[in-house]
Q: What sequence folds into this?
């Protein structure tokens, strides 16, 4: 069976989404995976564009032009200057992509970065895609954000929240639930039969036996013990300053950081152009580049499409894996 095309959303129109979509098409048009962009066709430059009326037209067009499902923007975007008037179109593109994936008309969705503050200003009530997608394409479990590059996978246990609040919210149950969902996602989407999880400590030296903070002893260690009792190969709390060294990385399949930056700084430092953000536990396949809207370089031809290309390839790979290894009751990848 041929895989359905991937649906790529416009993201923030004042950011680099249009440029990297064009760059990704240039890199992939001869080899695939095929995708179509949900965006205002009038604003796109630098590559041949083919307006399509339905996802089913994308595959035939893809070799010679970037297929675009036209969604007009209310205001012409100005690079570097997000306009909340365009927010409904940005959100609408995400909703449309999800609808296509749920209907099996797209193999998965790949999201260009959104300018979160611009969407909040227009009334968007979700911290980011991850939480929004959990609402419109969830499976009843909390969403898990996983970032992957060839050398490292990371999961932040708490995602988009102030650091003080994230630490206050840490409990053994939260760590256990995130770790279980991560292990299930690695089995289902990455084909890792017995994932090895390393869970970071919170404090310097993972608390130094409770003398440098008690959370590692009282919250992380009991969570790790419970996970091991469930048969999950988890260890920790691992002192966070050495968890990501070249020597340590081959010892686990995924590292769980307890807050956003603990998990994301290492992967973005290691491989900003090759990192991909994946949401685990949705009813549809979803990936995105690891970076943001890059307003500082938008419209200047400087944006590197590498992470988007990796996101498109990984989404296609996960969709294929899901269709070849269906799990009863679990979300599937779409084939046409
Ligand atoms: N998945 C998503 O929708 C994401 C959205 N964001 C949003 O993006 C906005 C800006 O976030 P920042 O923290 O400034 O991060 P950013 O990733 O947009 O930019 C950080 C730095 O990296 C550079 N950069 C990013 N992507 C690049 C690329 N493809 N090629 C060359 N250089 C690149 C930028 O020019 C900038 O100097 C925020 O509103 C944030 O919430 C951030 C991450 C993911
Ligand atoms: N820092 C990662 C990030 O912001 C990704 O957010 P999301 O929009 O994919 O939820």
A:
């Amino acid at each position: 069976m041929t895989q359905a095309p991937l649906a790529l959303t416009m993201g923030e129109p004042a950011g680099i989404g249009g440029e990297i979509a064009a760059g990704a098409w240039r890199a992939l048009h001869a080899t695939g995976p095929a995708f179509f962009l949900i965006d205002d066709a009038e604003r796109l430059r630098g590559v041949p564009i083919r307006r399509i009326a339905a996802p089913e037209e994308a595959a035939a067009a893809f070799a010679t032009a970037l297929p675009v499902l036209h969604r007009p923007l209310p205001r012409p975007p100005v690079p570097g200057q997000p306009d909340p008037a365009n927010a409904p179109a940005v959100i609408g593109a995400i909703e449309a992509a999800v609808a296509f994936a749920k209907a099996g008309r797209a193999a998965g969705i790949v999201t260009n970065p959104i300018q979160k503050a611009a969407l909040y200003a227009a009334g968007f009530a979700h911290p980011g895609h991850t939480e929004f997608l959990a609402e419109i394409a969830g499976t009843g479990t909390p969403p898990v954000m996983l970032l992957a590059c060839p050398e490292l996978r990371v999961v932040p246990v708490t995602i988009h929240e102030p650091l003080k609040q994230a630490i206050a919210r840490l409990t053994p149950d939260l760590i256990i639930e995130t770790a279980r969902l991560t292990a299930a996602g690695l089995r289902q989407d990455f084909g890792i039969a017995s994932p090895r999880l390393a869970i970071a400590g919170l404090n310097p030296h993972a608390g130094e036996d409770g003398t440098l903070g008690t959370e590692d002893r009282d919250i992380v260690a009991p969570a790790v013990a419970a996970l091991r009792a469930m048969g999950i190969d988890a260890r920790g709390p691992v002192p966070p300053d050495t968890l990501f060294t070249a020597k340590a990385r081959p010892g686990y399949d995924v590292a769980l950081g307890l807050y956003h930056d603990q998990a994301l700084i290492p992967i973005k430092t290691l491989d900003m152009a090759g990192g991909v953000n994946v949401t685990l536990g949705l009813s549809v396949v979803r990936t995105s580049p690891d970076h943001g809207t890059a307003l500082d370089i938008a419209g200047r031809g400087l944006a590197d499409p590498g992470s988007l290309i990796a996101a498109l390839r990984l989404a296609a790979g996960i969709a294929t894996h899901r269709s070849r290894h269906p799990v009863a009751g679990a979300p599937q990848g779409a084939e046409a």
